[in-house]
Amino acid sequence: MHHHGCPPTFVLVAGLSLSLSPFAAGGVHAEEPTTPVKIGFVTFLTGPAAAPFGIPDHNAAELLVDNLNAGKVPAPYNQIGLGGAKIDAKFVDEAGSAADVVTQFRNLVERDHVDVVVGYVSSGSCLAVTPVAEELKQLTLLDICGTTRIFEEKPRHYVFRVNPHATMDNVAAAKYVLDRIKDISVYSGINQNYAWGQDSWRDFRLAMKGLDPKATVDKELFPKFFAGEYGAEISTLLTSSAQFIHSSFYDGDLEAFIYQAGARGLPQRIPLVLTTGESSLWRLGSKLPDGAIIGARGPHTFFAHDGELNTWFHKAYVDRFNEQPIYPAYDLAQSLLGLKTAWEKAQAKKGGRPATEDVIAAFEGISFKTPSTTVQMALGNGHQGISDTAVGTYKFNRAENKPEIVDIVRYPAQCVNPPADVDSVPWLEGGMKGAKCD
Amino acid sequence: MARRPIVFGLLAFVIVAAAAPVLPTWLVSLATVAFANALVVLGLIILWRAGLVPFGQALFYAIGAYAVALITRYTGMRDALVLIAAGAVLSCLAAILAGFLLARYREIFFSMLSLAMSMILYGVLVKTETLGSTDGFGVEPPTYFGYAPQGHMRLFVLFWLALTFCAVSALLISLYFRSVAGSLAVPIRDNEIRLEFLGVSVDRLIHLNLVISGTLAGVGGALAALSIEHVDPNMSYWTTSGGFVFVTILSGAGSVAAAFVSSFAFEFLKSIAYDILPGTWQIFLGTVLLITILFLPEGIGSLYGRLRRRKPQSMGTA
Amino acid sequence: MLTAFAILTDGLVYAAYLFLVAVGLTLIFGVMRILNVAHGSFYAFGAYGAAIAVGMYFDRGLPVAGGFLLMVIVAMAIGLVLGLVLERGLLRLVYGKDEIVVVLVTYAAFLILEDVIRLIWGPSSYALYQPLGAAGTVDVGALVLSGYDIGLVVLAAVLAIGASFALKHTRWGRLLTVVIFDRELAAAFGINVTLVYTITFVIGAMLGALGGAVMAPKIAVTLGIGVEVIVLAFAVVAIGGMGSVGGAFIGALLVGESRAAAVHLVPQVELFVIYAVMALVLVFRPQGLFTRAQPRKI
């Protein structure tokens, strides 16, 4: 009666899947204010992006969720969980193809019925997930990905991003290096040959053109992402005439490049400008020569403004995980605290547990304090955050055997981020009109 | 007797289609992707029967997907059937062209040359910044003869469309396997030279099989693009091809239906792995694969044969 | 002029990297006709093992030469254990099955081993930077060459010559060569093919682990390093011809020099180079550069 095992298998699978559908009550609307809030955290738990992004992100999430649920986070975040409701966290691996990422997102929303999704490191994942989030009307906070396209391609309603996008990093880096090295006429770049590297280089080049039109590019190198072996690129840079080298390399690629370049004297001869360098400083230690210009994708860790929140966060992280937090951890903290601010504001206004729409309305355009700085949701119709940033110079403290950043220069948010109604690339091409730098 | 499997197969498709509104929506979207991939696997089965396993089938999958994406992006065309037809036509053309070179190779060299081609497309896509490089870009939801479904209907209609393509392909390929051209695939694998002596041009046969499987892969890619609503160069990367080969071996070369069952089982298993073993899902998948290979070396498709206590069908008709 | 010299040296260094990674794979494929996807795991395990063990060694301030020796020893040990476990434990169960099924078994093993790495060593990255510094540099005008890179080239050359010699002039080498040419005939002559298989696989595993161990000082040893080298190794093996050590060497040189030239002169095509070379070679010599076209059996 049965053909090729298909119906029996199908019935088995259908039964299995029905039994897997959780019995959770419906969405955000129907619950008591103190019913736990389900948050799905998506980040890289496996693969090469785990060490530099996924794990710090995951650690920060665990740390904050536990401390928020216990009410131990300093004011103004000392209320338990989100508005008194504890957070129930579920962690999902971001690894896999776009199809896998989208499938897992749908699972979180339609199978696990989460209230909020927080995460995504890869810009590709962010871009794939955003339309689905809008379609499923799921409140989603994009966390680390830096692409400007999310809110510039079309307006979003359910998707937010607290952390500023990558344009800021490169504009600040350009300003800093021009201040620091006089009479720049030639520079080179080495960036990974994929969207992040290409976009970073584009933003940096455009910013340089706007700030110093006479500077020219000597070599622009794009080794394959995760190439591992940079001998030819290092030789090319050694024999080029650049006065500095820009790179948006991070983690494994950055470390491999520094080890190999350092062994051949490149960073000692030509200063490096590393826009995301902060994430590797603790691992590189003395292997990174002094004088490299370092960015942290925001005023994080070494650049953080002093304050009770920062002191608490830093200490709690080190105590619990026995390692220093790096910027992805701060990014997650910003996202979660922004959510908490919006949630509690919505709850106060409504007088009861907020629905998704209430949270969205409260979130748009708000300003809130984070361990590093203050974030304003100023772009993308109030859905995209901006903050100030900072760039500094690397110095390894041999006496105490730890990395340090000196000569820190801060750049106000409106100086290095495009204004609300202008897209990043046109803004850069137009010479960054409207930037307020005092 | 040959009629019965076809009738039952179609019955199965109808049952699955009818079940869609009752099943959880996350399962429906997962199944859509699985069935889109199953078409690629079906194409791989065709080639495997002839003894060839390309490591770069993702080339045609990506062409189908990008065709849909590019047309949606640069023209106003949103009709699903037109888009999928475009994907099929373009991947068919690509397969015809690639086949002129590929059809002359066998064994591992066929596999590697196919891999090289798919990686060259990958490189081109990564370098194309206007298409978003590795980030790719989005695909608008399609319309169906003017009808633009909303909410959950969007999922179901696409699912039914994918199912229809699967059913039609399954039928056509079953018939193909019974045709002269189709059944000649097995002798190619066993002993090509004798086939040549019979007057059959083996290269031409392989070229034909390549075109059929390439077109199927293109349709699969087109459906996948519509389901995920996003395309990126990773769709042409060797790990994507590897995933298809993985499922093909799981299903075995004997049965058309096995392609769909295995593809769904694989996606489902992957989903479970992500859910309950977020940091170690690779161990889970690897172990499942190993167990399947060791205990079901002829693939899932041989389960039926075994259940019926027939000889395991490794090269039989569908 | 300096650029030409740089291209030459860079090509050699990259070729050395490719050869070290691919030589184990080509042996395994030549003898056993298995495209061992788990080769990436041998590489990764070798790298992790070296990073941890040799890192500890250097931290104690012991003599440098010993550190290099330890790298090789650790790699060999890891390759031995892993190779034996995989071959005796897993591959033995699927000999005789369809070639593609065997590839899939190695792929399954690779998936499992990737997570085993994560379970043993966690997701963080490890660095083994001491050997790189210890090897010093050589200046050629503006160009600075790393002593370690030069060492890698020498190692690759020594390995290539040694392997070719061993295959042609030692008893074991000749046995391996016979099995590469015609396994059935070899068995008919009373050669213990099963033993040859095991030994070949273990040697291949050791070479793979060695590749990882010697590359460890240059890279960040982290999850996923095995994945990238698999495709590179496959490509080099396809170009050079399966089972040919000389072929792997020439293939590695070809790809290495092409890539170096691309990076210096036409950086845009760097991404394609290895695949373009592979496609070109396959078009003109489908069996790879150095394998004889197998006579077709009727």
Strand order within the widest beta sheet of chain B: 1-2
| Cα radius of gyration of chain B in angstroms | 19 Å
Oligomerization category of the chains in this entry = heterotrimer
Strand order of the largest sheet of chain C: 1-2
Q: Counting H and I runs of at least 4 residues, what is the number of helices of chain C?
A: 12
The DSSP helix count of chain B reads 14
Give the strand tally of chain C.
2
Strand-pairing-aware structural class of chain B:
mainly alpha
Tell me the distance between the termini of chain C: 55 Å
Work out the radius of gyration of chain C. Answer: 19 Å
Please indicate the count of domains of chain B.
Answer: 1
Question: Can you describe this structure?
Answer:
The complex is a heterotrimer of chains A (438), B (318) and C (298). Chain A is of the alpha/beta class and 438 residues long. Chain A has two domains: 33-165 and 306-386, 3-Layer(aba) Sandwich (Rossmann fold); 167-299 and 388-429, 3-Layer(aba) Sandwich (Rossmann fold). Helix content of chain A is 42%, strand content 17%. In chain A, helix 11 links the parallel strand 9 and strand 10. The model of chain A is unreliable at 1-29 (pLDDT under 50). Chain B has one domain. In chain B, 72% of the residues lie in helices and 1% in strands. Chain B has a two-stranded antiparallel sheet with strand order 1-2. In chain B, helix 3 packs antiparallel against helix 4 and helix 11 crosses helix 12. The termini of chain B are close together. Mean pLDDT of chain B is 87; it is low at 310-314. With 298 residues, chain C is an all-alpha fold. Chain C has a domain at 20-227. In chain C, a hairpin with a 2-residue loop joins strand 1 and strand 2. In chain C, helix 1 (2-32) packs parallel to helix 6, helix 2 runs parallel beside helix 4 and helix 3 (64-89) packs antiparallel against helix 9 (193-215). Classes of the chains: A alpha/beta (438), B mainly alpha (318), C mainly alpha (298). Chains in contact: A-B, A-C, B-C. At the A-B interface, helix 1, strand 2, helix 3, helix 4 and helix 7 of A face helix 1, helix 2, strand 1, strand 2 and helix 11 of B.
